[in-house]
Specification:
By secondary structure, the protein is an alpha/beta fold. It folds into 2 domains: 240 residues, D-Maltodextrin-Binding Protein, domain 2 (3-Layer(aba) Sandwich); 195 residues, Periplasmic binding protein-like II (D-Maltodextrin-Binding Protein, domain 2, 3-Layer(aba) Sandwich), CATH 3.40.190.10. The protein contains 17 helices and 11 strands. The chain has a 6-stranded mixed sheet with strand order 2-1-3-10-4-11, sandwiched between helices. A 3-stranded antiparallel sheet has the order 8-5-9. β1, α2 and β2 form a beta-alpha-beta unit. The chain is globular.
Length: 450
């Protein structure tokens, strides 16, 4: 099944890009989007609808993190209106969260016995955090055989815990990339070191490109940002890809970032002119510095960053996969979907499942729900971004998605230990010593969570 799903995704991406290419100009620097696969027009009719025949209404709450325009009230109001028209017996109120205070708001609500019914977020919160604490509803009845057949295997695996309990029903996904200032690289004659068609480059050519840009007078080529955990998927992917290291084992039970490959990668980055370990910035700061031309590349990037910063950028952005020695990049991905807090009210739980089924599986609504996220569907919904060149351009990265490992126990502690480790290396601590400390701290947290 896994081979079939991956093959279908790759084929559909190729078809989508081919269609876009036939209708575009020869300038492919800013060409196109679509993550999609092939059309899937079946909704999950096996999921038990909530209260469809009841004369009484059920009130439920949705708390959503800012997943694309799921953080925009005008957009979400339209989505909720669609649902309430189809299910007039269920009333939905929405609370909008951000990544600065959202977790605190939910934790406070949990402590006060007022947890929301539905949360839109990713497996690291829904599965590895609240699910692991026994606070979430098992969504097994939404995960029908048809759903398991349709949803990509890597996504399905991430939505369940080690015991196979599903705490998330997914909606959308993305692949995080890096990006370069193409104008700057062209002026430094550094474009020769990368493949603009596949958006890949080797570790050796990455070094050559950075040197060329640095020698051209651009001394701040890239930054290993580490003032906090913001955007840490970029630094993890950079380190892991350079020499084929991993962050965790395949079973998601142990942190493996202390491998020889990762130590070699960190030593390389620490030695490169033009690459600085910067403890004064996090991912968002790095993005700003890239967009204003201070940095020649960004490690914290994806299509949403390019869309969101379009007005601030006056150069040609070239999104790239992270450099690898093998030529087989493994990108960190983002997965977002719905989870239900177990508040002990079966009517609300049933209504919440109906809401999720409608948003993620209704043949008409699912496309609109995904497009509101500005990401790609977790199953085959066809070329939903056929009219969006930028999304088609970024679709090339979706087949490069690697293992979604952000569900390992002790994840919060590991993230903190990671940026602390990078700070230590930047301040002169021996790389192996700093990495060993990270692994010890992270695995102690993982063991405590089991």
């Amino acid at each position: 099944m896994k081979y079939r799903k991956i093959a279908a995704l790759t084929l559909s991406l190729i078809m989508a890009v081919s269609v876009a290419a036939c209708g575009s100009s020869s300038d492919t620097q800013k060409n196109a989007d679509d993550n999609a696969a092939t059309p899937s027009t079946e909704s999950n009719n096996d999921a038990e609808p909530a209260g469809g025949d009841s004369a009484e209404s059920t009130d439920i709450t949705l708390w959503t993190y800012p997943i694309g325009n799921w953080g925009d009230s005008a957009t979400v109001d339209g989505l909720i209106s669609n649902f309430e028209t189809a299910h007039p017996d269920i009333n939905v109120t929405v609370e909008y969260l951000d990544y600065t205070n959202g977790d605190d708001q939910i934790n406070t609500a949990i402590e006060g016995g007022q947890a929301p019914d539905i949360v839109l977020e990713g497996p690291e919160r829904l599965v590895a955090n609240w699910g692991a604490k026994g606070l979430m509803v098992d969504l097994a009845d939404l995960w029908t055989d048809d759903a398991k057949e349709a949803i990509y295997d890597s996504v399905e695996n991430a939505c369940q815990d080690a015991n196979g309990v599903f705490y998330e029903y997914p909606l959308c996904m993305t692949a995080h990339t890096m990006a370069i200032n193409r104008d700057m690289f062209e002026a430094a004659d550094a474009l020769q070191y990368l493949d603009e068609e596949t958006r890949t480059w080797t570790t050796e050519n990455f070094q050559k490109a950075v040197k060329a840009v640095y020698d051209s007078g651009q001394t701040d080529v890239g930054a290993v940002y580490c003032s906090g955990q913001g955007g840490d998927q970029g630094t993890r992917a950079l380190v892991n890809n350079l020499y084929g290291g991993t962050f965790t084992n395949a079973e998601h039970t142990e942190y493996t970032a202390g491998s020889d490959e990762n130590i070699k990668a960190l030593e390389l980055l620490n030695s490169m002119e033009g690459i600085k370990f910067d403890s004064s910035i996090a991912g968002g700061d790095e993005i700003n510095l890239f967009c204003n031309g201070t940095l020649g590349m960004a490690f914290c990037w994806n299509v949403a960053q390019e869309k969101g910063n379009a007005d601030a950028i006056n150069f040609d952005v070239l999104p790239m996969a992270f450099p690898t020695e093998s030529g087989d990049p493994q990108l960190c991905g983002g997965i977002w979907g719905f989870g239900i807090f177990d508040n002990g009210d079966e009517a609300k739980i049933s209504a919440a499942k109906t809401f999720i089924d409608f948003m993620a599986n209704d043949e008409t609504q699912a496309v609109e729900s995904v497009k509101a996220s500005s990401y790609w569907p977790v199953k085959d919904l066809g070329n939903i971004y056929s009219d969006d060149e930028l999304m088609t351009e970024y679709s090339v990265f979706v087949p490069y998605m690697g293992d979604y490992y952000q569900v390992v126990g002790g994840w919060a502690e590991a993230r903190t230990a990671w940026w602390n480790m990078l700070q230590q290396i930047g301040s002169g601590t021996d790389v192996k010593t700093a990495v060993d400390e990270f692994v010890t701290t992270a695995n102690a947290a993982a063991a405590a969570a089991q």
